[in-house]
Amino acid sequence: MKALAMLGIGNIGWIEKERPACGPLDAIVRPIALAPCTSDVHTVWEGAIGDRYDLILGHEGVGEIVEIGELVKAFKPGDRVIIPAITPDWNSLEAQAGFGQHSNGMLGGWKFSNIKDGVFAEFIHVNDADGNLALLPDSISPEAGAMLSDMMPTGFLGAEMANIQFGDKVCVIGIGPVGLMAVRGAALKGASDIFAVGSRPNCVAIAREYGATDIINYKDGPILDQVFAKTDDLGVDRVIIAGGNVDTFDEAVKMVKPGGVVSNVNYLGEGDYIKIPRAEWGVGMGHKTITGGLMMGGRLRVEKLAAMVVAGRVDPNKLITHHFEGFDKAEEALLLMKDKPADLIKPVVSISW
Fold this sequence. Notes:
By secondary structure, the protein is α/β, with parallel strands linked by helices. It has 11 helices and 16 strands. Helix 6 packs parallel to helix 7 and helix 8 (223-230) runs parallel beside helix 9 (248-255).
């Protein structure tokens, strides 16, 4: 089969690989919509997970099942399914403890384009199909469904981990596609004021549509100063980090109130340590919680999120700014994600076989 792969740090290209075999609990899926992610950029051009050779890229997609293992009960060939970015081993001890994302080791549920081939291939292997695939509702297009692989689950996780309460003031740092979904999640969780940090006009416009009340443009000065100016120097109750780098935590801890939460869903591709300001963290006793997590995946989770789309609570189509036709356009879409033109939020590739 043909696939788009990482050939080494800084290099991608098309390769031929054998079609994956289907185990008794697994499924083989043929993609009908794919989306590249900034995580792919971190993996290839920053070497964030180390060198990889001929590793098929991608972890966001929707497809049609072409083969199932003999023990699969919930799906059949022909079903259109959302393929979550995280595919845990649901019989692992970590999954039983509630952390399937880390099944069999830290980040072990993140398999695609990390510890196994990803989804930018003519055929995709999905482990534990009954637990990891999600049916695509008829009213959701495959392209919108691809946003439910990672962008919506990750952004919503940021809002959940922040433990937003009704009336909380929330700052979302970074309003790429994950940050935009965090904005929407914060609004649905009951935040009053939502300060969205970003500068690109497309992202700013969608942030407002998703519920942002204020836009903080980092080009206008330190975001900390702008947040304090808008909150009478009190700061915010919750911070969701969906962009930036290891230094971003410094401002996040400074702007969150005692008793507040800094919730990180940003993939930190570089740096050895994050910075936590000692004094503003209450010299270690400020009751300022710092947490970070990986989306959990799973059929139940993704199908519930899909139900929110069907009900009109969220419109993931707003994330899609660039549309490509044909499997061979996956490389162009990924390079676009790397270059990040000013009008980009998320590209998607539609595929007809």
